[in-house]
Amino acid sequence: MRLPLRSLEALAIAALGASFAAAQEIKPTRPMVETPPETVTRVEETPVSTESAPQPVGFESEVYCYGYLSSRPERFPARVVGAENLAEQVDFVAGDLLFTSGGVEQGFSAGDEFFLVTPEREIVHPVTGKSLGTYYQYRGRGKIENLQGRSSVLKVTGSCTDIPIGSYLKPFEPIPIPLARKTPPAAIGDPPSGKASGHIVHSHDGSEALGADHTVFVNLGAGEGVEPGDFLTVFRYVRGRPEGREIGAIGANWVKTKKVPIPGTEIPRTYLGEIAILTVGDHWAVGRITDSYRLIEVGDEVELK
Asked: For tag attachment on the chain, is the N or C end more exposed, with fewer CB atoms within 10 Å?
């Protein structure tokens, strides 16, 4: 039996509606499992300590602007005999042009560098009175600009202090700043190290009372096994003074006591500070006082750590 056309259209529409309804049906889904956040472990960088690393024990001004000791008169290739501004100046500094007595015949060449030094005075041991040699002071540095047979023009490239006419030229050699590791200082009750010992015999500025950052001469050098970068312990034995001192009054009379140790007793050291060695000669060295716990004086004793 053939259905009417309208019935066929109605059935087609109904079938399409059922398909659409089935497509729109919400199907059950699997429960979502939350993934825990990724844990990132951060490794903290350990800071590198500089306390154990070697450190410079001084500065250029302390090695290039002090000087040296010589037990015999020094011989120099030339000296300063004039200057460009001699009419206006007596002493000279960096940037000035100086005339020297050295030229081609003395083996000089353009670009040669020299220390400018002056002999100062004889250094005498503060305890024994023995002569240790002549102190030669570094005044500055210079470079040869141009030259002739027996003369040259030197430009002052650096000055530590005033440079007078008559200063001597000493061939320049670089002086490295020593590197060293500091070790714990000596404390009261510590025994002597048993190594080389000597004294502070001179200070750069002539001071008798010294402290940290002063530069000094000691009468220990390469001959005693001392090298740049070594440390010296500064100490003294406080034995007292024979004249005694007043400590109080009983009635109208002052009572005096002498600070002389009892015979047979052993006096411990009083530790005063430390010195770092910068430059070394045969039997002398230049050192910088790095630490001072008490007043340090020329004549105090030193000992290699």
From this structure: N
Q: What are the residue ranges of helices labelled H in 24-143?
A: 60-64
CA distances to 44, 51, 54, 133, 179 from 47, in Å = 9, 12, 17, 49, 22
> β-strand 245-250 against 253-257: which pairing, if any?
antiparallel
8 Å CB contact between 133 and 158 = no
At 234, the amino acid letter reads V
Domain residue extents for the chain? 57-171, 191-304
Q: What is the pTM of this model?
A: 0.74
142 HSE (CA, 13 A, CB side): 31
CA distance 257 to 246: 7
- What pLDDT was estimated at residue 74? 92
Token duo for residue 177: 């700043």
Highest CATH level, class, for 57-171: mainly beta
What is the b/e burial string over 192-220, where b = at least 16 CB atoms within 10 angstroms of the residue's CB? eeeebbbbbbbbbeeeeebeeebbbbbbb
| pLDDT (tens digit per residue) in 117-127 | 999 999 999 99
Asked whether 178 and 277 are in contact (CB, 8 A), the reply is yes
How do residues 29-76 score in pLDDT, each as one tens digit?
555 555 555 555 555 555 545 456 899 999 999 999 999 999 998 999
Q: Is 7 left (phi over 0), alpha (psi -120 to 50) or beta?
A: alpha
Interior angle at CA 167, CA 165 and CA 169, nearest 5: 135
Residue in 210, 220, 217 with CA at minimum distance from that of residue 292: 210
